[in-house]
């Protein structure tokens, strides 16, 4: 994934959905028969090749997208146009995606232009794996424990909640799991890298290897049938439903073939093997420190709060907000998600420039995670900090920001 972080390529997709949403406003809407193509940001340049005219090639166009050349070939097949990408790298080509993807009745997500179709039932008439039952039971337990919050409130307990919200949410998830481990936006000394990653472990969102792998697959296949949490399957699915459907998720991201860099690291392998122990130790420490109120506020309320903030990045920031950059997916800049998620809500910025350590690209776009990275850089702890170039911005920019829905 070093190439992912360092290359200046762009994710683009030829959409095959109706209505086409934000892309329709810019002339990027394609007919339902056009193949859906998702190109990974940051991949090495694709090798160009020519197809023999005998194969039915009618046109050939070069799309030079931020340094990543693609050969877009249009063929005639049964009277319908199809586009294929020739090249190297993990490019997901999903022919005739609507037939494979959209199976249920469509519905428009509230106050959004996104039309979703549920692919599988979430509760009844489905197979519940042991992992599904475990995840569901745990989430129900954590949410249920939050009911005790009003009865156990104290300012000390609330202070523990706020402190651990910052430690696990900002240092653990947004800075470590996301910008550092998933996208390699900067480098840290190993002792600090492991410290921040351990903060992410205490967010109880999975071990670093599992989290990073799923997130990289999300970017590789963003808003296609291979995306583990696209809102095209419904808001609930993108928010948390995908976590409770192990069969579907494993079919999309189960290969875990994108984390060789982390699987070679003994620390992350150790965390993966001993993961369940660490949140338990945190709960025991909180109980010893402040009794049951500290467990309620420091574990349950804090974890559930960070859960939904993280999940809103996957759901709300793909259906509500604005798009400034032509990323070819549903990613939106959403100010209130950014406010809650330490800058992660500037999601269209992020999908345009995955490698960037800074998500709030405008001075007024609040991005506390970036402020922390900048501080670490100033004191010499963060190095090789990556930011988008002006040339890259020009190539991905729309003439003006596009308002896609109410935020």
Automatic annotation (TrEMBL):
<dbReference type="GO" id="GO:0006633">
    <property type="term" value="P:fatty acid biosynthetic process"/>
</dbReference>
<dbReference type="InterPro" id="IPR005804">
    <property type="entry name" value="FA_desaturase_dom"/>
</dbReference>
<keyword id="KW-0408">Iron</keyword>
<dbReference type="GO" id="GO:0016020">
    <property type="term" value="C:membrane"/>
</dbReference>
<feature type="domain" description="Fatty acid desaturase">
    <location>
        <begin position="155"/>
        <end position="373"/>
    </location>
</feature>
<dbReference type="GO" id="GO:0016491">
    <property type="term" value="F:oxidoreductase activity"/>
</dbReference>
<keyword id="KW-0812">Transmembrane</keyword>
<feature type="transmembrane region" description="Helical">
    <location>
        <begin position="133"/>
        <end position="151"/>
    </location>
</feature>
<keyword id="KW-0472">Membrane</keyword>
<feature type="transmembrane region" description="Helical">
    <location>
        <begin position="275"/>
        <end position="300"/>
    </location>
</feature>
<keyword id="KW-1133">Transmembrane helix</keyword>
<dbReference type="Pfam" id="PF00487">
    <property type="entry name" value="FA_desaturase"/>
</dbReference>
<comment type="pathway">
    <text>Lipid metabolism.</text>
</comment>
<dbReference type="InterPro" id="IPR015876">
    <property type="entry name" value="Acyl-CoA_DS"/>
</dbReference>
<keyword id="KW-0275">Fatty acid biosynthesis</keyword>
<feature type="transmembrane region" description="Helical">
    <location>
        <begin position="157"/>
        <end position="177"/>
    </location>
</feature>
<protein>
    <recommendedName>
        <fullName>Fatty acid desaturase domain-containing protein</fullName>
    </recommendedName>
</protein>
<keyword id="KW-0560">Oxidoreductase</keyword>
<comment type="similarity">
    <text>Belongs to the fatty acid desaturase type 1 family.</text>
</comment>
<keyword id="KW-0444">Lipid biosynthesis</keyword>
<keyword id="KW-0276">Fatty acid metabolism</keyword>
<keyword id="KW-0443">Lipid metabolism</keyword>
């Amino acid at each position: 994934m070093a190439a992912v972080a360092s290359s200046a390529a762009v994710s683009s997709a030829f959409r095959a959905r109706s209505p086409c949403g934000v892309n329709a406003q810019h002339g990027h809407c394609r007919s339902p028969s056009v193949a859906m193509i998702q190109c990974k940001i940051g991949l090495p340049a694709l090798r160009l090749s020519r197809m023999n005219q005998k194969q039915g090639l009618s046109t050939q166009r070069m799309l030079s997208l931020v340094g990543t050349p693609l050969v877009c070939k249009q063929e005639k097949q049964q009277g319908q146009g199809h586009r294929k990408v020739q090249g190297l790298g993990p490019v997901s080509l999903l022919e005739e995606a609507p037939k494979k993807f959209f199976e249920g009745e469509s519905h428009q997500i509230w106050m959004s232009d996104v039309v979703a179709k549920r692919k599988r039932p979430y509760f009844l008439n489905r197979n519940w794996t042991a992992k599904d039952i475990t995840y569901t039971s745990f989430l129900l337990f954590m949410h249920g424990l939050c009911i005790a919050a009003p009865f156990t409130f104290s300012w000390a307990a609330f202070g523990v909640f706020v402190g651990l919200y910052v430690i696990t949410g900002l240092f653990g998830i947004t800075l470590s799991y996301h910008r550092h481990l998933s996208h390699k936006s900067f480098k840290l000394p190993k002792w600090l890298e492991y410290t921040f990653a351990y903060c992410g472990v205490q967010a109880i969102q999975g071990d670093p290897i599992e989290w990073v792998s799923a997130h990289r697959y999300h970017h590789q296949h963003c808003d296609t049938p291979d995306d583990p949490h696209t809102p095209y399957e419904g808001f609930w699915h993108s928010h948390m439903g995908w976590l409770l459907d192990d069969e579907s998720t494993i079919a999309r991201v189960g290969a875990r073939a994108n984390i060789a860099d982390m699987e070679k690291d003994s620390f992350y392998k150790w965390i993966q093997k001993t993961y369940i122990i660490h949140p338990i130790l945190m709960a025991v420490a909180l109980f010893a420190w402040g009794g049951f109120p500290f467990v309620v506020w420091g574990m349950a309320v804090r974890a559930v709060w960070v859960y939904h903030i993280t999940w809103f990045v996957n759901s709300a920031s793909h259906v509500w907000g604005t798009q400034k950059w032509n990323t070819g997916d549903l990613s939106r800049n959403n100010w209130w998600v950014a406010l809650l998620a330490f800058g992660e809500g500037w999601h269209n910025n992020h999908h345009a420039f995955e490698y960037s350590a800074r998500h709030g690209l405008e001075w007024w776009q609040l991005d506390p995670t970036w402020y922390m990275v900048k501080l670490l850089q100033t004191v010499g702890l963060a190095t090789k900090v990556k930011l988008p170039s002006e040339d890259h911005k020009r190539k991905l920019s729309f003439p003006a920001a596009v308002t896609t829905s109410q935020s």
